[in-house]
Amino acid sequence: MLHKTRGIVINYIRYRETSIIAKIYTEKFGVQSYIENGVRSSKGKNRIALFQPLTLLDLVLYHDDKKEIHRISEIKSAYPFKTLPYDVYKSSIGIFLDEVLNKTLKETSENPALFEFLYHSLIFLDETEQHFENFHLIFLLKFTFFLGFSPHDANEILTQFREANIFIPFDSDYKTIMNHLIAADYQTPLPMSRGARNHLLEVIILFYQLHVEDFGEVKSLQVLREVLS
User: Fold this and answer.
1) From CA 58, how far away is CA 78, in angstroms rounded?
2) What's the whole-model pTM score?
3) What is the CATH number of the domain that holds 35?
């Protein structure tokens, strides 16, 4: 049966000589896998661009609840990015966010509020021209609401760390900035040093590792730190 839906590409893997299997977070069915034949052939060079991580798509899908891998009937870009893939700072943030999404998005059912949050967060990052150096921090904190472990304030994070025997430097200045981040939106300018930004990111990553099973190491973290330094 055919269904129209929007989607956000998470990643893809090569399959056989010219095909791929793409992992897409869809508005209607959550995380699903789709096989696309011939996309890596000489005739499919332009089509592979539609499967780059975080690409926003309009899709017509064949969906069968009994199957683990589905097929795409129609596909087109829903919002062509203007800056995100080309700006080194934004693209580094994008690579980092995509790795986090790959580790955390598990549900295979509809979640309109989460989809809208992800979709419009990416559009904001693409369109904004300034004050996005803290975007990834604010995104991660907002994302915890949808994952079910949103902190009320910095003290709640510290309390959970102590209960889990996790010890990390977190003085009153860090607490103040963290509380501002928790309350901030993407347009809120929050001046902070590179060291403070990196340390607070480490705290938030630890918070994710505490709550998300098999979250593990974030491989893109070091590159992000270097680029935003």
Assistant:
1) 5
2) 0.94
3) 2.40.50.140
What is the reported pLDDT for 39?
79
Would residue 96 count as lying in a domain?
Answer: yes
Q: Letter for the amino acid at 161?
A: F
User: So what's the pLDDT on residue 46?
Assistant: 54
* Residue 190 within a domain: yes
- Count of residues in the chain: 229
Residue numbers in the chain where pLDDT is lower than 50: none
Q: Helix 135-147 vs helix 194-211: angle between axes, to the nearest 10 degrees? A: 20
> Do 116 and 217 have their domain in common?
yes
Of the residues 77, 102, 132, the one at which a domain ends: 77
Q: Rounded CA gap, 71 and 58, in Å? A: 14
Residue 29 · residue 108 · CB < 8 Å: yes
Are residues 203 and 135 part of one domain? yes
C-alpha angle 136-111-184 in degrees, rounded to nearest 5: 30
Same domain, 104 and 202: yes
User: Long-range contacts: 195-200, Cβ < 8 Å, 24+?
Assistant: 197/133, 197/134, 197/137, 197/228, 198/225, 198/229, 199/169, 199/174, 200/137, 200/174
C-alpha distances (whole Å) from 169 to each of 48, 150, 166, 174, 197 are 45, 21, 10, 9, 13
User: Looking at the domain assignment, is residue 126 inside a domain?
Assistant: yes
Side-chain half-sphere of 33: how many Cα atoms within 13 Å? 13
R_g of the chain, CA atoms, integer Å: 19
184 is in which domain, residue-wise? 88-227
For residue 10, the SS3 value is strand
